[in-house]
Amino acid sequence: MRQGKYPFVIGFLFLPVTLYSIFVIAPYAQAFQLAFTNWRGIGAPEFIGFENFQRLFNDTAFWKAVQHHGIILLALPLITIVIALFFAFMLNVGGGSKGGQRVGVRGSAFYRVVFFFPQVLAVAIIAVLFQMVYRPDESGLINGVLTKIGLDPIYFMINPSLALWSIIGVLVWQGVGFYVVLFSAGMASIPTEIYEAAEIDGATRVTLFFRVTLPLLWDTLQVAWVYLGIAAFDCFAIVAVLSIDSGGPDGATTVLAMEIYRNAFTYGRAGYASAMGVALFFLTITFAALTLRVSKRESIEY
Predict the structure, then answer these.
(1) Which of 232, 198, 224, 8 is closest to 96 using CA atoms?
(2) Given this model, what pLDDT does residue 78 score?
(3) 14 within domain boundaries
């Protein structure tokens, strides 16, 4: 029996590992290789060593994109997790105890569907929807209301000071529903007896949240923070469709994926774009590793 185990496992994993190697590992390896060349997308690439990486350090567009990722990395996970935690708590625990079970607020089943709805929409559709929401004239959803009540319109995507935060707002709106479901699943695994014991000791809803729910949900929060951090490095579609001039105005919303696309397909600098891709790869891996390391806590068993 033990002798036949390894051939079975190898045979079971052979096809998926092969496909993963062809369509994921091989393109990554090719990108690393091209990052050391001056390839323009056609012809034979010429090896130039670390010139592309040296050029990155003096590229203002690259550093502006990195700065924008830093802002998104701070704002997106924090805002999304806070909102999703609040909604998940209210939908699962906020209604009190009924029949010995913790229940959510009235209508929680309907609210779950509403919150999750953005997840079923394609990213491009969400960006087009928010083009209508952010329109600077009275035909826009927000500015139409502001105009009706006599207030000046807000130029969301035109004002460089607001454009990036407007992008972050779309990312938060898109992601909250998924994390409501994720946190709800985590809260469902917390035994009701723990909440009952805390209530007997006089715990309020706020105390239940900070002293019971949050500590027991820490592993799920850690995963959510990593996912949202990766999403902060992967917001190309929203920026490409929603922003002015693909990363404008004046580069106020540009991100690394946009600069990679621009260098590869507009300027014909595929080798330099690959170097940016390698930098993005290491930034993402570093963020995930640091987040898991810094947020590591001893597991609570219950």
Answers:
(1) 198
(2) 92
(3) no
Q: What is the residue range of 170's domain?
A: 53-294
Give the dihedral of Cα atoms 173, 175, 178, 180; nearest 10 deg: -60
Cα angle for residues 200, 201, 206 (degrees, 5° grid): 100
CA 152/CA 53 separation, integer angstroms: 46
> Rounded CA gap, 223 and 225, in Å?
5
Q: How far is CA 29 from CA 25, 35, 264, 274, 278, in A?
A: 6, 10, 17, 11, 10
Question: Percentage of the chain surpassing pLDDT 70?
Answer: 90
Q: Is residue 20 part of a domain?
A: no
Token digits for 252?
A: 């106020």
- Of 286, 275, 283, 280, nearest to 55 by C-alpha is 275
CATH of the domain at 220: 1.10.3720.10
Question: CA-to-CA distance for 302 and 264, rounded, in angstroms?
Answer: 52
CB 165 within 8 A of CB 233: no
Number of domains in the chain: 1
User: pTM for the whole thing?
Assistant: 0.83
* Alpha-carbon span 138 to 194, nearest angstrom: 52
With respect to residue 35, please indicate whether it lies within any of the assigned structural domains: no
Residue 136 domain-assigned (yes or no): yes
Residues 215/198, Cβ–Cβ less than 8 Å = no
| Positions in the chain short of pLDDT 50 | 1
The torsion of the CA quartet 48, 51, 53, 57, rounded to 10 degrees, works out to -170
Contacts of 203 (CB under 8 A, 6+ apart): 211, 212
For residues 126 and 121, give the distance between their C-alpha atoms in angstroms, rounded to a whole number: 7
